[in-house]
From TrEMBL, chain A:
Quaternary structure note: The complex is composed of six subunits: RnfA, RnfB, RnfC, RnfD, RnfE and RnfG.
Enzyme class: translocase
Organism, as annotated: Halanaerobium congolense
Cell compartments where the protein resides: Cell membrane; Endomembrane system
Function: Part of a membrane-bound complex that couples electron transfer with translocation of ions across the membrane.
Transmembrane segments: 6-29, 41-62, 74-95, 107-127, 133-157, 169-194
Keywords per UniProt: Cell membrane, Electron transport, Membrane, Translocase, Transmembrane, Transmembrane helix, Transport
Segments forming a coiled coil: none
Protein name as catalogued: Ion-translocating oxidoreductase complex subunit A
Record-linked InterPro entries: Ion_transpt_RnfA/RsxA, NqrDE/RnfAE, NqrDE/RnfAE_oxidrdctase
Gene name of this polypeptide: rnfA
Automatic annotation (TrEMBL), chain B:
Protein name: Ion-translocating oxidoreductase complex subunit E
Membrane topology of this protein: Multi-pass membrane protein
Primary localization class, coarse: membrane
Keywords, in A-Z order: Cell membrane, Electron transport, Membrane, Translocase, Transmembrane, Transmembrane helix, Transport
One Pfam family in the UniProt entry: Rnf-Nqr
Enzyme class: translocase
């Protein structure tokens, strides 16, 4: 029971308190690039969540059973990026086969998940925090849910913003960044939610 | 010869303003926002990224003919990851303070779109001397924006620049500027100002 509570708290804190996008600054590129429409943003969030959960499991195993067991920490970055790149390739093939519509909608952003720093950041944070296998998977899943939450909220705001009267120089990226700043302020309100 | 030289100067200055990675292309955003809470962090991050960028551009422009086209992206990433590992170990050994404050954002240079983007767009198509000029220009372009952002956030957030107190006792620091929210807002306004400047220049 105690452990279950711990895991649940970890999940909530990953989604809300230490949100990957708004608090840790990981995955800003897709956050700015794919947040024009709610629907696409949601698919992007799903694909990223899927890759993140798999990455958490795969990199935990590689780190524990290979890199630590054989004392090869200097190969960490190289091996993590290879694992991520192959996982993304796998997910791409899977989506192409099962849902060609979604595949078209995600387009170039699917292969770009490889260079999404949220995924690599996740892989690096797990050994740093010393999570167990189950905690790592929950952390990965929570990070994905947090990413999806942030990107969908942002897309909703930007759809409304289309009709707003934004000063010319601030159109596009600048106003998106300022809105993200206000969202980050709102997410700071969660920081007192749990004391871990 | 003078033609060649002009071309090199153009490659170099391209990254400083016209195609500045942060202001113009809006890539490499994660470190830009995350580690610019002080001027020295911004500068250190800029220099580390520039080093990896220049070294991998040199290597890739030399061996570009040996890399088969369909495995080029994984090969580029491996070359980049090697230089990042080198940089990380170097910083941890000689500048442990900087390494600690940049934390995971040093290894995350591997997935900085700026670096992979320049390999694909420039180093894989041009001779080594031009790749060096491009890497230097893009690196300095990245570094100056990071440092400027760091200076602005440090002045408002802590009243100091590079750790030296510049604003007196009367100043009450705006803590929000060194927090995540301040990063987004400062960069948003900065990009807006740069847009205005380049619009007036036309």
């Amino acid at each position: 029971m105690e452990e279950f509570t711990q895991i649940l708290l970890l999940f909530i804190s990953t989604v809300l308190i230490n949100n990957f996008v708004l608090i840790r600054f990981l995955g800003i590129c897709p956050f700015l690039g794919v947040s024009k429409q709610v629907e696409t943003a949601f698919s992007m969030g799903l694909a990223t969540t899927f890759v993140m959960t798999l990455t958490a499991a795969a990199t935990w195993m590689i780190n524990t059973f290979i890199l630590e067991a054989f004392n090869l920490p200097f190969l960490q970055y190289v091996s993590f990026i290879i694992v991520i790149a192959s996982l993304v390739q796998f997910v791409e093939m899977f989506i192409k086969k099962t849902s060609p519509v979604l595949y078209k909608a995600l387009g170039i952003f699917l292969p770009l998940i490889t260079t999404n720093c949220a995924i690599m950041g996740l892989a690096l944070l797990i050994p740093l925090n010393g999570y167990s296998f189950i905690a790592s998977v929950v952390f990965g899943f929570g990070a994905g849910v947090g990413f999806t939450l942030a990107i969908v909220l942002m897309a909703g705001l930007r759809e409304k913003l289309e009709f707003g009267d934004v000063p010319g120089v601030l159109k596009g990226v600048p106003v998106t960044l300022i809105i993200a700043g206000i969202m980050a302020m709102a997410f700071m309100g969660f920081s007192g939610l749990i004391s871990m | 010869m003078s033609m060649n030289f002009k071309e090199l100067v153009k490659d170099f200055t391209n990254g400083l303003w016209a195609e500045n990675p942060i202001i113009r292309l809006v890539i490499g955003m994660c470190p830009t926002l995350a580690v610019t809470n002080t001027a020295s962090n911004g500068l250190a991050m800029g220099l580390a990224t520039s080093f990896v960028l220049i070294m991998s551009e040199i290597v890739i422009s030399i061996i570009k003919k040996l890399i088969p086209a369909n495995v080029r992206i994984p090969s580029y990433i491996l070359i980049i990851a090697t230089f990042v590992t080198f940089t990380d170990y170097f910083l941890k050994a000689f500048f442990p303070g900087i390494a600690a404050s940049l934390s995971i954002f040093i290894p995350l240079i591997v997935v900085n779109c700026l670096i992979l983007g320049r390999q694909e767009a420039f180093a894989s198509k041009n001779p080594t001397h031009r790749a060096i000029a491009d890497g230097l220009g893009m690196g300095i372009g990245f570094t100056w924006v990071l440092t400027l952002l760091g200076i602005i956030r440090e002045v408002f957030g802590m009243g100091s620049i590079f750790g030296f107190q510049v604003l007196g006792e009367w100043y009450r620091p705006m803590v929000i500027m060194v927090l995540p929210a301040g990063a987004f807002i400062t960069l948003g306004i900065l990009v807006g100002i740069m847009n205005q400047i380049s619009r007036e220049g036309k």
